Amino acid sequence: MEESRPEPSVPMDFLQPWLNMMNQALTGFFSGLQGMQAGSDNGGQGSSEGHARASQETLTSLFKTWGTLSSAMSEPTAASSIASGMASLPDVMTRFFQTGISGFLKAQEQAMNKIRRLSRQTEAYRFDNLDQDSLKAWSDFYDKEIRQYLKVPQLGLVRFYQERFNQAVDRYNIMNAKLGDFLQLLMLPMEKSFKVLSDKIEEQVRLRKVPEDPHEHYRLWVKILEGHYMTLFKSAEYTRALAETLAAFEEFITARNRIFADVMQSLPIPTNKDLDDLYEEIYRLKKRVKELEKSTKGPRKAPASGD
Amino acid sequence: MEETPKIPVDVILKHLAEGADRAQERASKASDILLGPLDTDIATTPYEVIYQEDRVRLKHYLPLAEPSATLKTPLLVVYALINRETMLDLQPERSVVRNFLKAGIDLYMIDWGYPSRKDKYLTIDDHVNGYMDNIVDHIRDRCGVDKVNLMGICMGGTFCVIYSALHPDKVKNLVTTVCPANFDTDQGLLHIWMKDVDADKMIDAFGNMPGDLMNFGFLLLNPARLMIDKYVGFVENMDDKAFVENFIRMEKWIFDSPDVPGETFRQFVKDCYQKNLLIQSRLVVGGKRVDLKNLTMPLLNIYGQFDHLVPPGAADKLTGAVGSTDTEDVCLDTGHIGIYVSSKTQREFTPKIIQWLTEREQPRTRSMAKKPGARKASVNSRKPSWTARTKNMKPSKERANA
């Protein structure tokens, strides 16, 4: 069964004469403009002539478009359609509003979920081991929650520049995280050596064998520290941390250099790549010249005296 | 019942009080010393630059004594690309350069200079078959000799080994000092760490290997000693002018670190540290295989017992891999730098080289004739601080009696 449509709230007999009137008024206005444009073009000379003609054509085209549109709109069927469209405006507005509100609520819900997730992540790291776990917590947090935003695909003309910038920021954060881990590893022998020294002093006090020269304690501590460092440096964990830190540092330098190259390309300064290409060319040329020089040189003269 | 010993609190406090007094006195003297004139110049032995190619210069040291009647073959010293050759002439009284000159040796030394970004494409081939070969030819022409004596230090020793294998006709005697030849060892931390270094990524990022980054790596080899104890020692001796001067000279040398050309570093790490090709005679330089069996000239290989950069395990395999039947290993009771700068080894290091070269300058006696089978010899002079292992060569009378 066909649904009965509500009557248009705007009367047809009002809309049609209004459109006709607007059509006539604007037609007159554009014709006048055309005449003015043609008059001013006649006074112009040389190169401005082409530009004036183009402006005139644009105006004519606009005028025609408006004429066509307004004629079409002044047709009774079209006017009826406009009127029914206007009647449905409150519905459309309501739907827009509903969509907006629900989108906002959904975004808020997602944000709340993320915050809940963050709190779940940090929960694993207690304050009793703050110095060691805080770095790891930040590293995990960055990796899972922040990094993804820097990897959002970029659009438009400047997408490559933006992508390189985001990459450098990402590499910088990773480098800092790795460096933090590495430095923390380097501090371990310090902490342990103080603990061992304290135990040794306790032992000396218990046995009443405290050295008379306080310098002895320093010497003992350095020896303990050296031993701990040697143990650490030979461990696979340290070697891995060192390699990862170096790799992160190198990746950051590479990403940073790409940004510098972007900046320098817009300035009258050669980039590293430009120079490297040139250096490579010079290197190859010099090598060839030296080889040629050697090959054209005659055999070496016999020495005046023996070896 | 046995009485428990008491903690000598009074003695400890007395020591502390004395220490505070000394520290105050030291600080007062130290300010006079540090604010006053200090002689901290290094590499003061006079020389002339007789050859230059790009950044590389050849130094010829001016004689300090009459030329030796027996040691006529010029000696070319090849330093590493890491740090600078000034280490051999840090201070007049502990100078390897001066000791050689005093013995009347005609001494030449390569100064590799400071590589810049334009040098990043230079390979081991460019250094060995390019710069080194041109320099050797220049010395041969200048002195009118067919062969030179070659002495390599650390990485410069590795370069000398490669050069001698590729140009054996131009080398009369080869002396390698703290020279890494076998890189597959777990004795040194550097050898362990280098296995995991991504040389490609490093060179792509930096162009050349930054000297400061390498220095930081060297400091990390023993932070307790190199970053703490060393400076505590400095503070404790700041009132001693000679100590301060020597300390600053050493600091000047240690942190004077040129970058290493990128491609050279890449090849050195990958082919030597990671694949260990040199000792297996599988290294390829300039399209030619470096066959250690081509090293048929006499070889003296000196290394340090406590060297943390080139441990004995990295240095002592060389003599067994070469083609020469006249080789000798000398292990000194010291570390990587101590071999050149400690006063104790100064009495042994250069005299040993001079003596060894002199013996090979003169016509060979029957006692020096080649005999099969390697053997170890220990030297007992002045309480031995070094041991020697000779291959196919009877120790000289002097050495045996020493």
Task: Please provide a written account of the structure.
- The complex is a heterodimer of chains A (307) and B (402).
- With 307 residues, chain A is an all-alpha fold.
- Chain A has two domains: 12-43 and 52-87; 132-292, no CATH class.
- Chain A has helices spanning 12-43, 48-74, 76-87, 89-123, 130-150, 159-206, 215-233, 236-265, 272-296.
- The longest helix of chain A is centred in the middle third of the chain and has 48 residues, at 159-206.
- The radius of gyration of chain A is 40 Å and the shape is flat.
- Chain B has helices spanning 9-35, 96-102, 124-143, 155-166, 189-194, 199-206, 211-220, 223-236, 241-254, 262-274, 312-315, 318-321, 338-341, 343-346, 349-361, 397-401, and strands at residues 47-53, 56-61, 75-78, 107-111, 148-153, 171-177, 284-285, 288-289, 299-304, 327-332, 374-378, 386-391.
- Helix content of chain B is 41%, strand content 15%.
- Chain B has one domain: Alpha/Beta hydrolase fold, catalytic domain (Rossmann fold, 3-Layer(aba) Sandwich), CATH 3.40.50.1820.
- Chain B has 402 residues and is of the alpha/beta class.
- Chains A and B meet through helix 6, helix 7, helix 8 and helix 9 of A and helix 1, helix 3, helix 5, helix 6 and helix 8 of B.
